[in-house]
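A reminder before we start the practical. When you read a complex entry, don't treat the lines as separate problems. The point of joint prediction is that each chain is placed relative to the others, so the output describes one connected object in space. Small molecules and nucleic acid strands, if listed, are placed in the same frame. In the example below there are two entries. Take a minute to note the order of the lines before looking further.
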Amino acid sequence: MSTALKILVPIKRVIDYAIKPRVNSARTAIETAGVKHSMNPFDELSIEAAVRMRERGTPAVTDILALSVGPPKCVDVLRTAMAMGADRSIHVEISDAEVKEKGELEPLGVAKLLKSVVEKEQRNLVILGKQSIDDDSNQTGQMLAGLLGWGQATQASKIEFEGDNVSVTREVDGGVETLRCPLPMVITTDLRLNEPRYASLPNIMKAKKNKLEKMTLQDFGVDEGRRLKTLKVEEPPARQGGGKVEDVDGMIKKLKELGAI
Amino acid sequence: MINPALRRQVINIYKELLNLGREYPLGYEYFQTRLHRAFASQAGLQNDEEIKKGIERAEYVKKEVEALYYVKRYRALRQRYAEN
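Here is the predicted structure of the whole assembly.
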């Protein structure tokens, strides 16, 4: 008999992947006002992974809890998560003003918060996206595993259960690596893990009935001090266009100019 | 006489498709006009079987659009993260 799973899926609201980010006029951050936001795509993969575990049924999944920390609008992504199949969610709210003043929570702060949630809600599996597409830290999952003292399998491309052991396949340079780890554990998802379902209109409507708790960082007693300081944000240099050559001689001349031959 | 259960199904799938269209790469306007035209062209159907076939086709289109969104996002992310 294998242990029933109580899954925590932390998700982040980020600028939509299709939007080209712009640096704000003060060059301190990316412009977020009036920009389309959606759930971090890697987090959609983790929700989907959790929902598929429940659909498979072995081992049984008792509860899928989605969590997001950030400004009030994070509620939208939590609703999407519940429309995809999460049972309930917690929104740890940080007001817009606070985000503007101090910046969003850093990976270490998020990891500490998640640790506290894991203990309070008695989770035995945490599935995170490997990184968020806004600051691309790729740290939260690893830090959380470290704080909890649990095993971790990052960038999973396949997850299988063998009794109380989880075997996770990950794509590494030149092949795949398989890790086997007992529960409880932390998994972070990679792009090829699954194909996330679309949160359809009827499911979004149904998910409005699911429980959404509002909490604050103080409820968890987490030290949310920021340790990182953004000095400057700059656009990458514009790409220089290529040139066309008329004929072979022209090409040879160009190559000689560049010192290639 | 039109079957009221089928009528509801048609309206529901139309609404779902409209909702999907909000993220359409060519814009909502493009999607909405074509969707409306497609449904309007079938508005005269009276036979239950034919209406059911129409609903099936709409379901198929819905799946295709969802798949389109998935592939578009997958490719964008693969380009950014997986292929260096």
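Discuss with your neighbour: Chain A has eight helices and eleven strands. What might explain this?
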